[in-house]
């Protein structure tokens, strides 16, 4: 089971990276900061593909990545304990390095970087690996309840009181400026705008932004830690029929919740609440399905290239951003493509990720960024 479980982790990472590029390329190629996507993509294939992205992609892959991040840290903790090594210095070197990588990535390449958020909130979350495993689950539930109280209740209350104002807004002047800059071929301006967007929307720079990430993101990481410590993947396989039932129910409920912003087109409150909550529920269905499918030899055979992408997930995540930066900004495509063209580029990049991973891992055991990260983590 150990070997299969590790394979499950690699496939999940590789699978997540495909979903992540489908989501990230929208932010890379269209102005989702200043334009209402429900207006931008309201006609024809744009609307069909945007609805598909809302239902199956949005906020359903970053939760898997966060879950796996916590799962991996629990594995590191077990390894350090077996080798009688001090874990905190190891994990904090790893997390601080991740913050630095994330800040560089967010400021220079892709403003929507999530790495630094993972790392910063886990500087606190890592402490739970020293406590009884139940505390991780309890803390995750408490943080989610706090998140709902701080962000969902006010949002939904305002929507009920002023439904006429509960619609996503657009700022055409700001959107035009952003489009001109990102299609300018002026690298200094492009990086300057990327940095501004990163620091404004995604960087954890104060207590409010930390609290938002700690209540929305840290619970997923804590659940991943808990899952490893209770051998969740082994339990999923052992109780296969129950797992299939849970996955099916989660899939239906997740899609039902995520369909609300489509039914009530462009409502800000539903876009905020339903996509987050429904996305997490749907991600649970994805995780269970892939863990169970990984027990099948045919599935392993055909997903082996995806598992190799998962083995170098850090390198793949950064390389996706670099390739999107070169293609979209280099060819002045920002704001000028429909979603068929946009997703075609995403698919092309992911195929390149697979080819690179397959060829690279024939000669090396870990990706180039993984190698650097490991050197910093273990100082060896």
TrEMBL record:
It comes from the Bacteria. The chain crosses the membrane at residues 12-28, 48-71, 91-108, 114-131, 138-160, 210-230, 242-267, 273-293, 314-331, 343-361. Keywords: Membrane, Transmembrane, Transmembrane helix. InterPro entries: Bact_Transport_Assoc (IPR052529), DUF418 (IPR007349). Residues 229-379 form the DUF418 domain. This is DUF418 domain-containing protein. It comes from Macrococcus lamae. The lineage of its organism: Bacteria, Bacillati, Bacillota, Bacilli, Bacillales.
